[in-house]
Amino acid sequence: MTRRRAAVSPPVALTVAGSDSGGGAGIQADLKTMEAHGVFGTSVVTAVTAQNTRGVERSHVLPVAEIKAQYRAVNEDFDLGAVKTGMLATEPVIDLVTDRAAALDAPVVVDPVMVAASGDRLLDADAEAAYADLIGEATLVTPNADEAAVLTGIDPTDRETAREAGEELVGMGADAALVKGGHVGADDDTVIDTLVVDREGQESLGPSAGSADDEGPTVRTFEHPRVDTDATHGSGCTLSSAIAAHLAHGETLEFAVEAGTAFMKRAVRYSLDVGQGPGAVHHLAALREAADRHRTMTDVAEVVEAFVDRDVSRLVPEVGMNVVGATAYAEAVGETAAVEGRITRTFSGVAPNRGVRLGASSHVARFLLAAREFDPDLRFAVNCRFDDETEAATAALDGPVTEYDRDAEPDDASGTMGWGARQAFGAVDADDPTPAAVLDRGAVGKEAIIKVVGETPEELGERVFALLDAVE
Q1: What would the pLDDT profile of 341-393 be if each residue is shown by its tens digit?
Q2: 98-104 contacts: CB < 8 A, separation 24 or more?
Q3: C-alpha distances in angstroms, 345 versus 71, 295, 355?
């Protein structure tokens, strides 16, 4: 029997940019990112580059007639929900894109690609002035600090100058500007992206920050911890494509920027170790995280079942035991799986109060996420009873045991679990094995706990059973 078609109608976005033979940036990065956001990506190739993770070897700009033909073919067939631009290379290409953007009834995100992350120049010097007209047609322009300095004459070195550069870009006609903070204050621990929105164009962009009675553009900053890596190849392309994808879905500009920067944070944190250079951002990290949730929940459920079968009641703390599993790309408690209500002792052994779900744990989950900052391969954790016998039993574990002292916790710590994990794992030399367990000796009103961790559910189970064997 012939099967009935079950068509899907995703929003469509267009990227007008150069091709990256290395696959980490340009058209390739844009299309991967759009697909990861459930958007059908179309493309107009402006230039062909011979490049990889180490740099750009050659670049060839396509004839304007060929670029026109590509755009015409896409525009005549697809209902474009958003457009983003990347490498445009020459003044004639920029002028062409400006002309087409002016006629579009769709958001336009302009990523003014001028210099590659490797330092290679990707824009003809004579074309820099041509960007002024294109910025005037932009819904959002997304320069990094170097590009903002070229476009505005203002070097964004801090919050104030980043805001000034954004306001200058809005003054050039853009509805909004996002001055990216990745190149600002490279020695700082925090990356600050600054969004400046023109109040007059705000109705078409959706709600934004600031009071309606204020004068001038509204300003909002997006802050996240800096990731200690040089593997940022393709980061600018990926961010602008993520924002364009959200706009194609009909989201407000502010939501699109917030979601795009969060997407970028994960893509850099879990960057791809490919090529001989620093590497590239992981365009599909968020998609892989979502795909890994069911398997992680299943893994946790199987560990819980093994604990029930073996009867680990001797190791269950007064507060109850919880088994937590983090997805491979987890960044938040909601991306960890745990037992809802914990595992408690019964007359016949132990039993979970309810089933396994995402976000069911707070304490152990936050501890595990903090520990993953030091060893991203850690995926599972469990809290066990702490007494003299279990403490002695940790000698039977197949890895080192460390601890933290609650009395040393500063008043401004964001939480004991995260702080404790940072103390315990941060004290271990990078060349030494990751601890198998961490001792928390408790405090007044706080039960002492042994937290056991593992890279796999099997390793976690084996370590818990090693403790159990030792105390039994």
Answers
A1: 999 999 999 999 999 999 999 899 999 999 999 999 999 999 999 999 999 99
A2: 98/130, 98/133, 98/134, 98/136, 98/137, 100/71, 100/75, 101/134, 101/137, 101/138, 102/137, 104/80
A3: 66, 27, 16
Residue with the two structure tokens 């050039």: 172
Q: Which two tokens stand for residue 7?
A: 């068509």
Three-state secondary structure call for residue 317: coil
Contacts 24+ apart (CB under 8 A), 5-11: 10/38, 10/39, 10/40, 11/38, 11/39, 11/40, 11/81, 11/82, 11/245, 11/248, 11/249, 11/250
Domain spanning 292-471: which CATH class is it, in words?
alpha beta
Please, is 201 exposed, middle or buried when counting C-beta atoms within 10 Å of its C-beta (0-12, 13-18, 19+)? middle
* Span 219-229, average pLDDT: 90
Q: Which residues of 160-180 are buried (b: 16+ CB within 10 A; e: fewer)?
A: ebbbbbbbbbbebbbbbbbbb
Q: What is the residue-wise DSSP string for 214-255?
A: S-S-EEEEEEEEPP--S--BTHHHHHHHHHHHHHHTT--HHH
Domain with CATH 3.40.1190.20 in the chain: 12-283
Q: Which two tokens stand for residue 217?
A: 């553009």
pLDDT digits (tens, 9 = 90+) for 320-334: 999 999 999 999 999
Beta strand pairing status for 380-385 and 323-326?
A: antiparallel
What is the residue whose two structure tokens read 């604990």?
307
Helices 64-77 and 91-102 sit at what angle, rounded to 10 degrees?
Answer: 20
The CATH number for 12-283, chosen from 2.40.50.140, 3.30.470.20, 3.40.1190.20, 2.60.40.10, is 3.40.1190.20
Are the CB atoms for 16 and 83 separated by under 8 Å?
Answer: yes
Lowest mean pLDDT among 364-368, 422-426, 448-452: 422-426
Query: Helix (H) and strand (E) counts for the chain?
Result: 15, 18
Q: Which two tokens stand for residue 155?
A: 């070097």
Residues 331, 309: Cα–Cα separation, whole Å = 32
Helix (H) / strand (E) element for 197: namely: strand 190-197
Give start-end residues of each CATH 3.40.225.10 domain in the chain: 292-471
